[in-house]
Amino acid sequence: MKIWQADFYKHNLKDEKGKPIWELLICDSQGHLIHEAKCPQSQANSDWLISQLQQVNRGNLPDRIQVFRPQSVSLLSIAAEKLGVKVEATRRTGALKAELRKRVIDENYDPVKLEKPPPQALPENLWGESWRFATFRAGDLVDYFSDRSLPILDMPKSLLPINLGIASTVSVPGVIIYGGRKSIYLARWLQEAKPIALNYIPTEIGKSGGLVLESGLVDRWILATFEDEEIAKAAQNYEQRKQASLGLHFFLVQPDDSGMTYTGFWLLKDE
């Protein structure tokens, strides 16, 4: 499958009259720059994007265009649809983000930083019965879950330990939710929400905090809260293990702790 990563945004660019300039940047998933173009704000529309996309590789378009910026999704989706190309809204556009950061002149400006809303409470009808922290050896993780029949299994190739250069002996941390009868509903909701990362957010150092799920482009959800010093310490260890595993972690939903049935599994890494 041929995939491009694209961004269309005004950043902090201005013309000689001080009016915003929009920039289109396209690269492939390996980080090779394919196309770049700029236009005044008065031309920043789907028609201009269509003309630009048709110029790239003499109109040899990809199967999919990945977009991480919410402000870019709408216009690029309209243009791509007219050309028969699917747009995927995803944070996982590492090659494009690296190219954008490479071009920054003002050190105080981060071209990939997005405003994120406060985390929202998880819908009450999806709450699981209990949860816990867990670890798997990097060398066992992929084989263990790929060999099992799960309704939902999300292990992007780019996040496989071997592709991240993680040694097989490294412990990859994660969170397990025991959902009981609600397991399948929770797993389906999560898959639709597109999980990215699961982070510990302390509210009082060493004593309380919560787990916040990063999903979609900028969505955030409160998955669990606690006021227990022992759990807070376990959460700190969880974050330390994430650093040791280069940010790789996992999220597992299963009905109970019998180890017989699994409902959903996701490999995660913050973007």
Would you write up a description of this structure?
By secondary structure, the chain is an alpha/beta fold. It has two domains: 3-102, Ribonuclease H-like superfamily/Ribonuclease H (Nucleotidyltransferase, domain 5), CATH 3.30.420; 120-268, no CATH class. The chain has helices spanning 46-55, 70-82, 94-102, 138-146, 161-164, 183-193, 229-244, and strands at 3-9, 21-28, 33-40, 64-67, 86-89, 120-121, 130-137, 152-154, 171-178, 195-204, 208-215, 219-226, 249-254, 264-268. The strands form three sheets. It has a five-stranded mixed sheet with strand order 3-2-1-4-5, with helices on both faces. Helix 1 packs across helix 2 (70-82). The radius of gyration is 21 Å and the shape is elongated. The model has no long low-confidence stretch (mean pLDDT 92).
Topology (SSEs and partners):
Layout: E1 3-9, E2 21-28, E3 33-40, H1 46-55, E4 64-67, H2 70-82, E5 86-89, H3 94-102, E6 120-121, E7 130-137, H4 138-146, E8 152-154, H5 161-164, E9 171-178, H6 183-193, E10 195-204, E11 208-215, E12 219-226, H7 229-244, E13 249-254, E14 264-268
Parallel strand pairs: 1-4, 4-5, 6-12, 8-14, 9-13
Antiparallel strand pairs: 1-2, 2-3, 7-9, 10-11, 11-12, 13-14
